[in-house]
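We emphasize that the prediction below concerns an isolated chain of 322 residues; any contacts that depend on oligomerization or on bound cofactors are therefore not represented. The input was used exactly as deposited, without trimming of termini.
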Amino acid sequence: MQTNKVLFTNCSLSSKEIALLRKGNVEIIKGAEHLSEDELIEKLQGCQGYVIGGIGKATKRVIDSTNLKIINFYGTGYENYIDLAAAAAKNIVVANTPKANAYTVAEFTVALILNSVKQIARLHNLVRQGKWGLRQAFNLKDKTLGVIGMGTIGQHVAKIMSHGFGMKIIYVSRNSKPNLEKELQAHKVSLDELLSSADVVTIHTPCNDETKGMIGEAELSKMQTHAILVNTARADIVNGKALRQALDKSQLATAAFDTYYQEPAPSIEEDAWGLLSLPDDKFILTPHTAYNSKEAFQGMNDMVVENLTAFFKGEKPPYSVN
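Result of the prediction step, given as a C-alpha coordinate string:
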Protein backbone atom coordinates (compact mmCIF):
# COMPACT_ATOMS: atom_id res chain seq x y z
CA MET A 1 0.00 0.00 0.00
CA GLN A 2 1.27 3.48 -0.91
CA THR A 3 2.77 5.59 1.84
CA ASN A 4 1.67 9.21 1.75
CA LYS A 5 4.29 11.79 2.68
CA VAL A 6 3.09 14.75 4.74
CA LEU A 7 5.25 17.73 5.72
CA PHE A 8 4.69 19.03 9.27
CA THR A 9 6.07 22.43 10.22
CA ASN A 10 6.22 23.49 13.87
CA CYS A 11 3.94 20.70 15.08
CA SER A 12 4.79 18.50 18.07
CA LEU A 13 3.31 15.01 17.83
CA SER A 14 3.29 12.37 20.56
CA SER A 15 4.42 8.81 19.95
CA LYS A 16 0.77 7.73 20.03
CA GLU A 17 -0.19 10.24 17.32
CA ILE A 18 2.80 9.27 15.19
CA ALA A 19 1.78 5.61 15.47
CA LEU A 20 -1.80 6.40 14.42
CA LEU A 21 -0.60 8.32 11.38
CA ARG A 22 1.81 5.57 10.37
CA LYS A 23 -1.02 3.06 10.72
CA GLY A 24 -2.94 5.25 8.29
CA ASN A 25 -0.02 5.07 5.81
CA VAL A 26 1.24 8.58 6.54
CA GLU A 27 4.99 9.19 6.49
CA ILE A 28 5.83 12.23 8.60
CA ILE A 29 8.30 14.70 7.10
CA LYS A 30 9.48 17.30 9.60
CA GLY A 31 10.25 20.85 8.53
CA ALA A 32 11.56 23.91 10.34
CA GLU A 33 9.17 26.64 11.44
CA HIS A 34 10.82 29.35 9.37
CA LEU A 35 11.13 28.17 5.77
CA SER A 36 11.47 30.54 2.85
CA GLU A 37 9.07 30.01 -0.03
CA ASP A 38 11.83 28.34 -2.06
CA GLU A 39 12.82 26.10 0.87
CA LEU A 40 9.19 25.14 1.43
CA ILE A 41 8.69 24.24 -2.22
CA GLU A 42 11.81 22.07 -2.14
CA LYS A 43 10.72 20.37 1.08
CA LEU A 44 7.25 19.64 -0.33
CA GLN A 45 8.53 17.81 -3.40
CA GLY A 46 7.08 14.28 -3.28
CA CYS A 47 4.66 15.18 -0.51
CA GLN A 48 0.92 14.61 -0.76
CA GLY A 49 0.09 16.62 2.35
CA TYR A 50 1.18 19.73 4.21
CA VAL A 51 0.29 20.52 7.84
CA ILE A 52 0.92 24.22 8.47
CA GLY A 53 2.09 25.15 11.93
CA GLY A 54 3.90 28.35 12.85
CA ILE A 55 4.07 30.98 10.12
CA GLY A 56 4.37 28.87 6.97
CA LYS A 57 2.10 29.74 4.05
CA ALA A 58 0.67 27.72 1.18
CA THR A 59 0.87 30.52 -1.37
CA LYS A 60 -0.22 30.17 -4.99
CA ARG A 61 3.41 29.64 -6.02
CA VAL A 62 3.87 26.92 -3.41
CA ILE A 63 0.65 25.19 -4.45
CA ASP A 64 1.39 25.44 -8.18
CA SER A 65 4.94 24.11 -7.67
CA THR A 66 3.90 20.98 -5.78
CA ASN A 67 1.55 18.01 -6.06
CA LEU A 68 -0.28 18.38 -2.78
CA LYS A 69 -3.59 16.62 -2.22
CA ILE A 70 -4.45 18.01 1.22
CA ILE A 71 -3.40 21.05 3.27
CA ASN A 72 -4.25 21.12 6.98
CA PHE A 73 -3.90 24.36 8.94
CA TYR A 74 -2.88 23.85 12.57
CA GLY A 75 -5.47 26.13 14.10
CA THR A 76 -8.69 27.87 13.10
CA GLY A 77 -7.89 31.00 11.08
CA TYR A 78 -6.50 29.49 7.88
CA GLU A 79 -7.49 32.36 5.56
CA ASN A 80 -4.18 34.23 5.76
CA TYR A 81 -2.09 31.09 5.38
CA ILE A 82 -3.62 29.22 2.44
CA ASP A 83 -4.49 30.51 -1.03
CA LEU A 84 -7.92 28.91 -1.24
CA ALA A 85 -8.45 29.82 -4.90
CA ALA A 86 -5.17 28.18 -5.89
CA ALA A 87 -6.01 25.11 -3.80
CA ALA A 88 -9.46 24.86 -5.40
CA ALA A 89 -7.98 25.14 -8.89
CA LYS A 90 -5.91 22.02 -8.19
CA ASN A 91 -8.68 20.19 -6.29
CA ILE A 92 -6.68 20.25 -3.07
CA VAL A 93 -8.64 19.57 0.10
CA VAL A 94 -8.15 22.22 2.82
CA ALA A 95 -8.83 21.40 6.47
CA ASN A 96 -8.22 23.00 9.85
CA THR A 97 -8.66 22.31 13.58
CA PRO A 98 -11.67 24.44 14.58
CA LYS A 99 -12.42 25.34 18.20
CA ALA A 100 -9.54 23.24 19.59
CA ASN A 101 -7.85 26.35 20.97
CA ALA A 102 -10.96 28.48 21.56
CA TYR A 103 -10.91 28.45 25.35
CA THR A 104 -7.15 28.95 25.43
CA VAL A 105 -7.47 32.07 23.25
CA ALA A 106 -10.35 33.29 25.42
CA GLU A 107 -8.26 32.95 28.59
CA PHE A 108 -5.36 34.78 26.96
CA THR A 109 -7.73 37.55 25.90
CA VAL A 110 -8.86 37.94 29.49
CA ALA A 111 -5.21 38.11 30.57
CA LEU A 112 -4.55 40.94 28.09
CA ILE A 113 -7.64 42.76 29.34
CA LEU A 114 -6.53 42.50 32.97
CA ASN A 115 -2.96 43.52 32.16
CA SER A 116 -4.18 46.54 30.18
CA VAL A 117 -6.69 47.72 32.77
CA LYS A 118 -4.46 47.12 35.81
CA GLN A 119 -1.21 48.10 34.00
CA ILE A 120 0.67 45.09 35.39
CA ALA A 121 3.48 45.05 32.83
CA ARG A 122 4.00 48.80 33.17
CA LEU A 123 4.15 48.63 36.97
CA HIS A 124 6.55 45.68 36.85
CA ASN A 125 8.91 47.58 34.56
CA LEU A 126 8.74 50.71 36.75
CA VAL A 127 9.74 48.67 39.80
CA ARG A 128 12.65 47.14 37.86
CA GLN A 129 13.74 50.71 37.08
CA GLY A 130 13.80 51.52 40.79
CA LYS A 131 10.56 53.50 40.71
CA TRP A 132 7.84 52.92 43.30
CA GLY A 133 4.87 54.89 42.07
CA LEU A 134 1.13 54.38 41.83
CA ARG A 135 -0.84 54.22 38.59
CA GLN A 136 -4.60 54.39 38.88
CA ALA A 137 -6.60 51.58 37.28
CA PHE A 138 -10.38 51.02 37.15
CA ASN A 139 -12.61 48.16 38.23
CA LEU A 140 -14.24 45.95 35.62
CA LYS A 141 -17.39 45.32 37.65
CA ASP A 142 -20.39 47.07 36.06
CA LYS A 143 -18.24 48.27 33.15
CA THR A 144 -19.16 47.39 29.55
CA LEU A 145 -17.38 44.82 27.40
CA GLY A 146 -17.87 45.17 23.66
CA VAL A 147 -17.27 41.96 21.69
CA ILE A 148 -16.71 42.23 17.94
CA GLY A 149 -17.42 38.76 16.56
CA MET A 150 -19.52 36.56 18.85
CA GLY A 151 -18.28 33.16 17.67
CA THR A 152 -16.95 30.45 19.96
CA ILE A 153 -14.04 32.52 21.32
CA GLY A 154 -16.10 35.68 21.69
CA GLN A 155 -18.76 33.79 23.62
CA HIS A 156 -16.17 32.26 25.98
CA VAL A 157 -14.72 35.72 26.68
CA ALA A 158 -18.18 37.22 27.23
CA LYS A 159 -19.13 34.49 29.71
CA ILE A 160 -15.87 34.78 31.67
CA MET A 161 -16.11 38.56 31.91
CA SER A 162 -19.82 38.56 32.75
CA HIS A 163 -19.92 35.72 35.28
CA GLY A 164 -16.44 36.27 36.69
CA PHE A 165 -16.09 40.06 36.68
CA GLY A 166 -19.64 41.39 36.54
CA MET A 167 -19.24 43.18 33.21
CA LYS A 168 -22.15 44.19 30.99
CA ILE A 169 -21.97 42.64 27.51
CA ILE A 170 -22.73 44.23 24.16
CA TYR A 171 -21.71 42.71 20.85
CA VAL A 172 -21.49 42.99 17.08
CA SER A 173 -21.99 39.79 15.12
CA ARG A 174 -23.35 38.57 11.80
CA ASN A 175 -26.03 36.59 13.65
CA SER A 176 -27.91 37.23 16.87
CA LYS A 177 -27.18 34.97 19.84
CA PRO A 178 -30.52 34.68 21.68
CA ASN A 179 -29.36 32.04 24.17
CA LEU A 180 -26.32 34.09 25.11
CA GLU A 181 -28.43 37.23 25.37
CA LYS A 182 -30.73 35.44 27.81
CA GLU A 183 -27.86 34.01 29.86
CA LEU A 184 -25.79 37.20 30.09
CA GLN A 185 -28.42 39.90 29.44
CA ALA A 186 -26.23 40.76 26.45
CA HIS A 187 -27.34 43.13 23.69
CA LYS A 188 -26.57 43.10 19.97
CA VAL A 189 -25.72 46.65 18.84
CA SER A 190 -24.23 48.51 15.91
CA LEU A 191 -20.45 48.88 15.63
CA ASP A 192 -20.70 52.62 16.29
CA GLU A 193 -22.70 52.06 19.47
CA LEU A 194 -20.31 49.39 20.67
CA LEU A 195 -17.23 51.55 20.17
CA SER A 196 -18.74 54.59 21.84
CA SER A 197 -20.19 52.65 24.80
CA ALA A 198 -17.64 49.97 25.69
CA ASP A 199 -14.94 50.37 28.32
CA VAL A 200 -13.16 47.35 26.84
CA VAL A 201 -13.40 46.30 23.17
CA THR A 202 -12.23 42.83 22.17
CA ILE A 203 -11.97 41.57 18.58
CA HIS A 204 -12.81 37.98 17.62
CA THR A 205 -13.91 38.16 14.00
CA PRO A 206 -12.17 36.50 11.02
CA CYS A 207 -10.09 38.77 8.78
CA ASN A 208 -11.58 38.83 5.30
CA ASP A 209 -12.54 41.36 2.63
CA GLU A 210 -15.47 42.49 4.77
CA THR A 211 -13.60 42.95 8.05
CA LYS A 212 -10.10 44.00 6.97
CA GLY A 213 -9.58 47.58 8.12
CA MET A 214 -13.05 47.75 9.68
CA ILE A 215 -11.58 49.61 12.66
CA GLY A 216 -10.05 52.74 11.16
CA GLU A 217 -9.62 56.40 12.01
CA ALA A 218 -13.34 57.18 12.14
CA GLU A 219 -14.12 54.15 14.31
CA LEU A 220 -11.25 54.72 16.75
CA SER A 221 -12.32 58.34 17.23
CA LYS A 222 -15.60 57.06 18.69
CA MET A 223 -13.94 55.16 21.54
CA GLN A 224 -13.87 56.50 25.09
CA THR A 225 -10.55 57.98 26.17
CA HIS A 226 -10.13 55.45 29.01
CA ALA A 227 -11.09 52.47 26.81
CA ILE A 228 -8.97 49.40 26.07
CA LEU A 229 -8.77 47.72 22.65
CA VAL A 230 -7.75 44.04 22.66
CA ASN A 231 -7.10 42.08 19.46
CA THR A 232 -6.33 38.35 19.54
CA ALA A 233 -7.75 37.85 16.03
CA ARG A 234 -5.79 39.41 13.14
CA ALA A 235 -3.94 42.73 13.14
CA ASP A 236 -5.31 43.86 9.77
CA ILE A 237 -8.83 44.18 11.18
CA VAL A 238 -7.49 47.40 12.74
CA ASN A 239 -5.78 50.04 10.60
CA GLY A 240 -2.31 50.20 12.17
CA LYS A 241 -1.42 53.77 11.28
CA ALA A 242 -4.83 54.99 12.45
CA LEU A 243 -4.32 53.14 15.72
CA ARG A 244 -0.95 54.81 16.27
CA GLN A 245 -2.51 58.23 15.68
CA ALA A 246 -5.41 57.47 18.01
CA LEU A 247 -3.08 56.36 20.80
CA ASP A 248 -0.91 59.46 20.28
CA LYS A 249 -4.01 61.64 20.62
CA SER A 250 -5.27 59.61 23.64
CA GLN A 251 -8.50 58.82 21.81
CA LEU A 252 -8.25 55.50 23.66
CA ALA A 253 -6.03 54.49 26.55
CA THR A 254 -4.34 51.25 25.53
CA ALA A 255 -4.26 48.62 22.80
CA ALA A 256 -3.12 45.04 23.37
CA PHE A 257 -2.50 42.71 20.40
CA ASP A 258 -1.47 39.08 20.13
CA THR A 259 -0.88 39.56 16.43
CA TYR A 260 0.96 42.04 14.23
CA TYR A 261 0.86 43.35 10.68
CA GLN A 262 4.16 41.63 9.94
CA GLU A 263 5.13 38.36 11.60
CA PRO A 264 7.65 37.96 13.09
CA ALA A 265 7.38 41.59 14.13
CA PRO A 266 9.96 43.99 12.67
CA SER A 267 12.48 45.94 14.71
CA ILE A 268 11.33 49.24 16.18
CA GLU A 269 13.35 51.06 13.53
CA GLU A 270 11.67 49.14 10.69
CA ASP A 271 8.14 49.22 12.10
CA ALA A 272 6.04 50.89 9.39
CA TRP A 273 3.06 51.27 11.74
CA GLY A 274 4.95 52.97 14.55
CA LEU A 275 3.29 50.99 17.33
CA LEU A 276 6.33 49.13 18.67
CA SER A 277 7.99 52.33 19.84
CA LEU A 278 5.07 53.18 22.12
CA PRO A 279 5.44 52.60 25.89
CA ASP A 280 3.80 49.47 27.30
CA ASP A 281 1.01 51.41 28.96
CA LYS A 282 -0.05 52.39 25.43
CA PHE A 283 0.64 49.28 23.34
CA ILE A 284 1.26 45.66 24.34
CA LEU A 285 2.24 43.01 21.78
CA THR A 286 2.63 39.27 22.30
CA PRO A 287 3.99 36.93 19.57
CA HIS A 288 0.79 35.33 18.23
CA THR A 289 0.72 32.88 21.12
CA ALA A 290 -2.82 33.12 22.51
CA TYR A 291 -3.65 29.67 21.13
CA ASN A 292 -0.69 28.05 22.90
CA SER A 293 -1.56 25.62 25.68
CA LYS A 294 -1.01 21.92 26.29
CA GLU A 295 -4.72 21.25 26.02
CA ALA A 296 -5.13 23.23 22.81
CA PHE A 297 -2.23 21.46 21.13
CA GLN A 298 -3.64 18.08 22.11
CA GLY A 299 -6.97 19.00 20.57
CA MET A 300 -5.31 20.26 17.38
CA ASN A 301 -3.17 17.13 17.12
CA ASP A 302 -6.23 14.91 17.49
CA MET A 303 -8.03 16.78 14.70
CA VAL A 304 -5.02 16.67 12.36
CA VAL A 305 -4.79 12.89 12.85
CA GLU A 306 -8.52 12.54 12.15
CA ASN A 307 -8.31 14.70 9.02
CA LEU A 308 -5.30 12.95 7.50
CA THR A 309 -6.42 9.44 8.41
CA ALA A 310 -9.85 9.99 6.86
CA PHE A 311 -8.47 11.65 3.73
CA PHE A 312 -5.96 8.93 2.91
CA LYS A 313 -8.68 6.31 3.44
CA GLY A 314 -10.62 8.04 0.66
CA GLU A 315 -13.08 9.71 3.04
CA LYS A 316 -13.95 13.35 3.60
CA PRO A 317 -11.87 14.84 6.44
CA PRO A 318 -14.20 15.70 9.34
CA TYR A 319 -12.81 19.26 9.57
CA SER A 320 -12.46 20.16 5.90
CA VAL A 321 -13.30 23.74 4.93
CA ASN A 322 -13.69 23.38 1.17
